[in-house]
Amino acid sequence: MKTRIFSIIFSVILLLTCFVPSVFAAENTRTENSMKEFLDPSGRILGVSSKGEWDTVPENSIPAIVKAAETDIDFILLDVKITADGKLIIFSDDTTQRMLDSENVMNIAETSFAELSRFNLKYSCGGSNEKVSEEKIPLLTDVLSVAKENDIPLILRCSSDIISVITDELSENNALDMCILMCRDSKKEISTALSQCYKKPHIIGTKRGNVIFAMNAFASFLEDEGAVGIELKTKNRYGINYYKSVVGNYAENLRVIADPTIPEECGFRQDSEKWWNDLIGRGYSVIITDHAELFCEYLIRTDEARDRLQRIYDKYVTQHTLPDFKDDVLNDFKKAYTDAVSMAESLLSDKSSCVQELNDCYSALNKAANDININFSALEDGSAGTTITLPRILLCIVFVVAVVAVQIYFFKRRKKEG
User: Fold this and answer.
1) Cβ–Cβ contacts within 10 Å for residue 117, how many?
2) How many Cα atoms are found within 13 Å in the side-chain-facing hemisphere of 227?
3) What is the pLDDT of residue 329?
4) Three-state DSSP state, 248
5) Whole-number average pLDDT of the chain
6) CA-wise closest residue to 198 among 234, 226, 169, 157
7) Residue 74 · residue 140 · CB < 8 Å
8) With contact defined as beta carbons under 8 Å apart, do 81 and 108 qualify?
9) pTM of the prediction?
10) To bridge 71 with a disulfide, which of 78, 292, 356, 390 should be the other Cys (CB 3.0-4.6 Å)?
11) In contact, 289 and 155? CB cutoff 8 Å
């Protein structure tokens, strides 16, 4: 009896050891989900908070990171620099002039971290008129700890000469799988830097310019290096960087990234919903923004617009049979309907569609379907599709009266002249 009970208990424990881990494994963290989406070029639109949420705290500071993490933004973009004593810090500029309250302007690469730590960061994005906060320049290791605590992945922008140093630090802190490095240097410099890495990091390359051959060569290089994204920059608002047919070629294997926080490097496109729609409509699937909370709300409305389009597609396409068009007069209805259906299918199969595209398609499909419903009877029997309504009856009466009046007028005139 005891042996039998023991066997039952053992079997239950064995089943639990197989089942429980699979349940927990299915629940990925926010960081894992965002990284998984980024590594899928066909994934949904992603938002990146530029230097954290720094409206009321210093940019690139610990509080800015925490505030950004409190939104639903997917990533936080931070700048990494190295000090004279080899410390990796989170700081955007090469000098202290804009963001630190030091009287003398110091060069970051020529100054020790201990010396930099004597001074405080200025609020927001700094400048001569900005007040001084109580925050110090943070170390990369401290930022990694905060990012882990708040479960949010990072994009670390850096020069190629410190890629291997950053990679080593990420590896030591078990953070390689939660960070992506963004580098603005040349193919040769990036290639050399990656060859020096013991473990290869996720990498994004940046290409400035508007020459298609150079862009293609750089994108091909990034693909060969196993990069996960390409950031495109140009001052030309109408440049090839903004042709969907061009950007779409890169989007097959790389995430295509736009940074409207610097309008002059983004075809003078602003960091606002109008231009988010424009950039996403042109094939960009990762948007860097200074407005993390607003962008998260925009993504929610994008999902709602997609769901609404899906519902009307199911109603008018999946559950609807198109009548047999027998009259050439009605071909315009058919074309409008089939064009709207084709557009809806394209947008619904693409996870990176913008709100405006989805809403415009919804309106077009709804109108085309309603036009068909109004003329349904006429379409079935092959007539001209004209529905008899009171306004049309009145219009016909007015037309007949007018014709009769004209005939009477000319008849009387001819009779008088005769």
Assistant:
1) 14
2) 29
3) 53
4) helix
5) 88
6) 169
7) no
8) yes
9) 0.83
10) 292
11) no
**Which residue, among 125, 35, 39, 27, has the nearest Cα to 75 in the 3D structure?**
35
> pLDDT tens digit string along 288-300?
999 999 999 999 9
Per-residue CA distances from 278 to 172, 211, 246, 282 (Å): 41, 21, 15, 6
Place of tokens 């899928």: 40
Which of 11, 130, 111, 109 has the alpha carbon at shortest distance from 59? Answer: 130
Q: For 40-58, how does the pLDDT look when each residue is reduced to its tens digit (9 = 90+)?
A: 999 999 999 999 999 999 9
Q: Is 203 helix (H, G, I), strand (E, B) or coil?
A: strand
319 torsion bin: left (phi>0), alpha (psi -120 to 50), beta (else): alpha
Q: Give the bridge partners for 232, in sequence order.
A: 207
DSSP letters for 3-67: HHHHHHHHHHHHHHHHHHHHHHHHS--HHHHHHHHHT-TTS--EEEEETS--SSS-TTSHHHHHH
DSSP class of residue 318? I
Q: What is the DSSP letter of 161?
A: G
Distance CA 39, CA 74 (A): 13
pLDDT at 418: 58
Q: Which two tokens stand for residue 329?
A: 């007069």
Kindly indicate the confidence band of residue 32, based on its pLDDT and cuts at 50, 70 and 90.
Answer: very high
Question: SS3 for 134?
Answer: coil
Dihedral of the CA atoms 163, 168, 169, 175 (nearest 10)? 90
By DSSP bridging, strand 46-50 and strand 255-258 are unpaired
Longest Cα separation, the chain: 130
User: What CA–CA distance (Å, rounded) separates 18 from 15?
Assistant: 5
Question: Would you call 90 helix, strand, or coil by DSSP?
Answer: strand
Segment 126-157, tens digit of pLDDT = 998 899 999 999 999 999 999 999 999 999 99
List, in order, residues 6 or more apart from 294 with CB less than 8 Å away: 273
27, two tokens: 């629940």
Q: What is the DSSP letter of 401?
A: H
Structure tokens at 59: 């940019």
CA distance 391 to 286: 52
Q: What are phi and psi of 94, to 5 degrees?
A: -80, -20
